[in-house]
Amino acid sequence: MPFSLSASDVATQAKIIGGLLTLMWALEFVDQVLLRRRLDRFGIAPRTQIGLWGILFAPLLHGTWQHLMANTLPFAVLGWLTLLRGVTEFTIATAVIWLVSGVGVWLFATPRTMHIGASSIIFGYFGFLLSRSYFEQELFSAVISVVVALLYGPLIWGILPSRRRGISWQGHLFGFVGGILTARYLPELRQWFAMF
To answer: For the segment 151-185, what is each residue's pLDDT rounded down to a tens digit?
Structure first.
């Protein structure tokens, strides 16, 4: 797929990334200021019926302002790099990563825990951008992979099991796996999404 970047492409990309981040910040404002953190209960509670809703909502919710601030820049950078090849590819990657990470956490994370935050999506973009060049064997993808490795290479340690409170390494791991699966099956996913 050829790469081009026009002013209208940049404007569209800014609206998409900016819109998603605005939604996260607005939800955190409502949660912290108006609802006294009651939205956080809509995260993923593993293997519970109510926790299934978290698959849809968890990436948009954050425990603290610091949690959201820590996720904002990597989400913007890695999301934008994912968007460089088009809105369709970004939408496919985001949808698959969102689903795989959410289902993975719901099935395999520790019981009686709550998982929220955009880091599962961030790790998904990370895995997608790193692995896409392997599956495509195309120069542009290889350049992006190198840039991502240089900027965010240490993120890879976040997929390893951790006992640190408040860190969902399972979300990181399954997000990363979702990104690799998206890169591997992108041609088939494009065809499947084109039917809708």
So the answer is: 999 999 999 998 788 789 999 999 999 999 999 99
Q: Inform me whether the pLDDT recorded for 1 exceeds 70.
A: no
- Closest-CA residue to 175 (of 110, 133, 135, 115): 115
Q: DSSP string of 147-191? A: HHHHHHGGGGGGGS----TT--HHHHHHHHHHHHHHHHTHHHHHH
CA gap 172, 117 in Å, rounded: 10
Least Cα distance to 122 among 165, 72, 50, 63 occurs for 72
Residues forming beta bridges with residue 44, ordered by sequence position: 115
User: What's the CA gap between 154 and 42, in Å, rounded?
Assistant: 30
Whose tokens are 């929220």? That residue is 116
DSSP reduced 3-state for 96? helix
